[in-house]
Every structure is written in C-alpha cells, then in structure tokens.
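Batch job 17 of 40 flagged for manual review because the log was empty.
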Amino acid sequence: MITRFLTDVRVKFNPFSPRAKPARLFLSLIPPNARADGMKVETKMLPRTSTEPATLDVKFKDGKELKLELDKMRIPEVMEEVDRHSRILARKEELTGN
C-alpha cells in the first residue's frame, strides 16, 4: 500500500465486531514511522454494544478526502481505493520531477 501521500487517517470501529477486520488490517498496514513522517493517525474505538458501522476517512497531500464504510468492504477493496489516488499522485510527482 502506498502511504507516502497520506496526511490524515481517521478510523472508527468496534474492535469486537467481526465486520471491523478491514479497519484493523488497514491500521496494521500503516508503517511504524508514519507519524514521524507527518501523518496524523486517529483511531476511535466504539463500545462493544455499538451498532455503528466502521468507517475510514483518509486525506491525501493534494487535499482530496476519501470516506469509506468498512463494514461493506474487504481489505483488498480498501487498499485498491486508497492506492488508486496514491498512484495518480505518484504519476503527477514523477511528471513534474519533484
């Protein structure tokens, strides 16, 4: 997963719910030095009895925001959505020579 273009990651999930697996896996894919490199990672744990859906909000360096409902998605789909915009930003960066 391409994480160098992410500036802000917000995840909200019930850790005891089986539908929260994509949220947990996404958090595990973020590199350990991401916060030191300037990424803001915010997690909100919902109570065990909560029926609120798991959500992921991602903000990219160009200002685009991506909001996903994770209880309806699998982790490959989540990674594909995030990587799609990251690849566009990588291509733009490569063409401008930065």
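Reviewer: the log was empty due to a logging misconfiguration, but the result itself is present. The chain has one domain: 6-96. Unflagging and moving on to job 18.
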